[in-house]
Amino acid sequence: MKRISYPELDETLYTEVLENGLTVTVVPRKGFTKKLAYFVTNYGSIHTDFELEGQAYHAPAGVAHYLEHKMFDLPGDRDVSAEFAALGAMTNAFTSYDMTAYYFSCTEHFQESLHLLLEFVSTPYFTEESVEKERGIIDQEIGMNEDSPDSVVFDNLMQAMYRSHPIRVPILGTCQTIREITPEVLYRCHRAFYTPGNMLLCVIGDVDPEQVADMARQVLGTEKTEVGRKLRPWQEDMNCPAGEVSHTMEVAMSMFNLAFKCEPLEAGDAAIRMEMVADLAAEALFGESSELYLRLYEQGLIDSSFGGGFETVDGCAMLLCSGDSEDAATVRDAILAQAEKIVNEGIPEERFQRMKRSALGRRIRDLDSFDSTCFRICAYHFSDFAYFRFPEVYRGIQASEICDFLGRVVRQPRCGLSIITPIAKEETV
Amino acid sequence: MIETISLLSGVTLRVCRDTRFKQGCLSFQLVRQMDKQEAARNALFPSVLLRGTRRCPDLRSITEYLDTLYGASVSALVRRVGDYQTTGLCCGFMDDRFALPGDKVLQPVLSFLEELLLDSPLEDGGFLTSFVESEKKNLISTIESELNDKRAYAMGQLLKTMCAADTFGLPRLGEPEEVAAIGAKELYAHYRHCLRTSPIEIFYVGSAASGRVAELLQPLLQHLERDVMPLAPQTAFHSCPGQDVVETMDVAQGKLCMGFTTPITNRCPEFPAMQVLNTVFGGGMTSKLFRNVREKLSLCYSVGSGYYSTKGILAVSAGIDFDKEQLTRQEILTQLEACRNGGITPEELKAAKEAILSSLRATHDSPGSIEGYYATAAISGLQMTPAEYMAAVEQVTLEDVAAAARQVRLHTTYFLKGASR
What we know:
The complex is a heterodimer of chains A (429) and B (421).
Chain A: E1 2-6, E2 11-17, E3 23-28, E4 35-41, E5 49-52, E6 55-58, H1 63-70, E7 73-74, E8 78-79, H2 80-86, E9 90-95, E10 100-106, H3 110-121, H4 128-146, H5 149-161, H6 183-193, E11 199-205, H7 209-220, E12 229-230, E13 244-249, E14 255-262, H8 269-286, H9 291-298, E15 307-313, E16 316-324, H10 328-345, H11 349-366, H12 370-382, H13 390-396, H14 399-409, E17 415-422
Parallel strand pairs in A: 3-11, 13-17
Antiparallel strand pairs in A: 1-2, 2-3, 4-10, 4-11, 5-6, 5-12, 7-8, 9-10, 14-16, 14-17, 15-16
Chain B: E1 2-8, E2 11-17, E3 23-33, H1 39-49, H2 59-68, E4 73-81, E5 84-94, H3 106-118, E6 122-123, E7 126-127, H4 129-144, H5 150-162, H6 176-180, H7 184-197, E8 200-206, H8 210-222, E9 244-249, E10 254-261, H9 271-282, H10 288-296, E11 300-308, E12 313-320, H11 325-340, H12 346-361, H13 367-380, H14 386-395, H15 398-406, E13 409-418
Parallel strand pairs in B: 2-8, 9-13
Antiparallel strand pairs in B: 1-2, 3-5, 3-8, 4-5, 6-7, 10-12, 10-13, 11-12
Helix pairs in contact in B: 1-4, 1-7, 3-8, 9-12, 9-15, 10-11, 11-15, 12-14
């Protein structure tokens, strides 16, 4: 395996692309008991349109998440969770807009657990009956999200900001779309996207990197199969179809999500640099060390729930902030005005250096978290970037890039605002 | 592994020296008896301390200063530990070895902690009214926004109802109207009183030796006047009549919560068995509740149980369709009955024990989990290290678990259901 050291971070990374196309990445952590393995496919809820073996398919919304649930069934009534539990390992999975991850953590029996992870994610087994039974569970998960103001406020914002990009639809799909999901649909999506060439195995812990790669070879074999070609039929310009949407719910106080549409990122170094520029821009514009944050906080327009950053998904990107406020429209106007001010005045070099030092320090601290590190390595891998190179990217960024970004992005036509207000309590007579 | 040093009367420093991490963590907690009269004030003052010092007079100057310390963080930390409420600050910071040559992080972070604790700007013998008023608003929002998470809200309502005679039913952060009534001068007087009379728990995890940490804390300690009032020991659940509560709201999904009591607390010899029972019954994807209520009957997405070991409360929660309440309730009781009768397979027992052991083994793998375990264990009355705890869990037999289950009694239920739209 290829070994790269990052002495500045006190990290070493082993990586290899196997014959079957799978990338294996291992971050050894000597002296730690916990081991964490992520087996991830570069496939999420937005990838409903694809081409496989020369034919185009459109899958119902929510299929990636449904598939994630059903992967836990194995032939012969085997129960994956119980098998992990018997090994003392904890397993789970999640689906995002553009990634599906299966993982386990353990302190003992690592090899057996790794074998099981690779086996169950590469073994599709769906029956009419088991697929039908899952619908009740996912209906309840959808119901839970419908009662979650954080989910509703974001989903409403995506519908306001995007015309055709599938980020408009919740990751889980809807109670209607999931009724179109059949075993056949699940098998097809698995064949298209759960092929080693579309996946990454990332392990952190006190393990032998070569043994990890060997296990992946042993379970997944050497055959390289076709990866489904993602179709991206959506057309998006940088304007939002609706500027503002509002909804009432059983919440305690009004809350909002506010975002500015950004150009989607491509892959590689330039994209990662843009992401870090955008993160620093968010900090300069409305972070806790910004002039604006202090002013809005002291005026009571935002409170400690306020925060934001840059979000990126395959085919779309946005500068997003959220919080509780009785007057989100005024917060939006203040952000627009402040961006203009920063662009005109520039960012003092001393402040800029301080922001970079802080961002770097926080990322270094974050490396203590196995879960966060594994997640970031996977997400950056699919953007074709080795995550541990972040210090050099930060060092290269100039203050003028922040101003260019803010000047381009923080503008009224790119802005979407989603508000949730409490249900007005009617007086009973 | 953990060094415990008494620094001053009632001031305990616990140090976990570990050079594997890239960051350090230090928590400073004042331990109070949970009390309706002061819970809201205890929850409020840490946030007011974080609003400014005489040198850094506003939020922005504080954040800018922390930015120069490589993005160190200081946050308010308010916990409930059985009968106690702890309140204070928690610092997280990058390890010195990653700083530029000549830069230090730990030493200035601890000096800054001292500044935040002891050098607030004052007016008229109290905190600044502007700070107090805006933090009151913040705290009220935080308390009220529990309603936004229906599962947490439902669980809070269950505990409030079943703990009418126990301080465990008091909300951790106080009630909104209690917060609203707090004045800046009285809050400062209360804070100074707490600083003087409360037992103080300081926990550090990171690469520095205990002697070094104690030395760096000296300037802070020199300025503390101490007149400690000892705390009453932790007590078990104080019972009241049980109830079946139904509340109606405009929601898509119902939340059923069932509160059970047990005489077994974390101070009892049967505690490991009770912990195993909780995991067999409702902890994680191999539990009886998950496998039956969710996987077999497809009644819900989320279902599980939690054991509040300082009090001896076992609470179950499930997110379900409104018309499935009776069915779900019955199934939850059926699964508990199975545990009572020893209807637990060897696989279920092994899985539950392994889950607990695995999480205990990993306690030492992150600064946050180390702090979380040790900073609360001693005051909660849990007198076991993770290693001793693991040894006790290994010994638990199927009959021990069934015996623990037989001591569990249903006390109160709470059901949040939808209004007809």
